[in-house]
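Message: I would love a firmer grasp of how sequence relates to backbone shape in proteins. Thank you; the sequence and its tokens follow:
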Amino acid sequence: DPVIVGCLIQDYFPSGSMDVAWSKSGNSISEDNKTTITNFPPALASTGRYTMSSRLTLPANQCPAEEFVTCSVKHDSDPAKDVDVPCTRPVPEECPDQPRLTLHRPALEDLLMGSDASLTCTVKGLKKGEIPVFTWQPSTGKDAVTKEPVLDSCGNCYIVSSVLSGCAERWNNGEKFTCTVKLQSGTLSDTIFNDRDKFLLPQVHLLPPPSEELALNELVSLTCLVRGFYPEDVLVRWLHGNQELSRGNYLVWEPKKELGEGPETYAVTSVLRVPAEAWKQGDNYSCMIGHEALPMGFTQKTIDRHSGKPTQVNVTVITSEADGVCY
């Protein structure tokens, strides 16, 4: 039987100029009647970044169990990278001795936009057929939904989650929520709440395009740097004038913990590419930030070529009152 190996490339931008090649022991692998290479087209993720994959199919005698093939990836935005891919699938990890429970905060977008925010309680490391029983305190008046078991990355253990729909108001007021799970091996419990005493406001810096890009008269980059905030969840959106841009037009990196002593803080960077002509004629662009520490939930900075210096305003998002009703 042939051996099939894959190479997954994620979180890159823009979509073009992606080169993927395969090699073994330093020698390039070429297609023939027994060896095929399939590069699948890029797909746009909700983050505004792209994902693509490459599949190599070759005879088993050319890819013994103890050997590797190399996937080489080259993109304009990053130096070339080589990744060794084993010819055989690694042996799955054993399930942990004891299941583990984690609680997840509501999605920030739901909180800021007034949606019916949900808490998620997840148990990992369950044996096949083990059925957890979830209990939430306090109740929100809505029935918690237990999801179907999902196979864990270890390959022979399972993950089960319970989702409690509640209102954003109770979470924002700092009310504590406890998830208790009964298992064959015992009981697990954890508590989560919104500790607003630790909140830190984001600092927003909007940077104009570098002169080197302007000289090329093509696309130019606007950079939005957001730093010094806590907790780490943050929303980044871009506007052209008063029109919000689709997420495929810009790139947002994951928040990273900042270095140094003192309170725990995070930073995030976003880059918007716009036509040089639009920038030169004075079109204005805004970086809008959503974060729980902001008094209005959102703030934005606006910049254009003529003003030079970004201006900042707070933004209020008005949502349906029904979304915030407690049951």
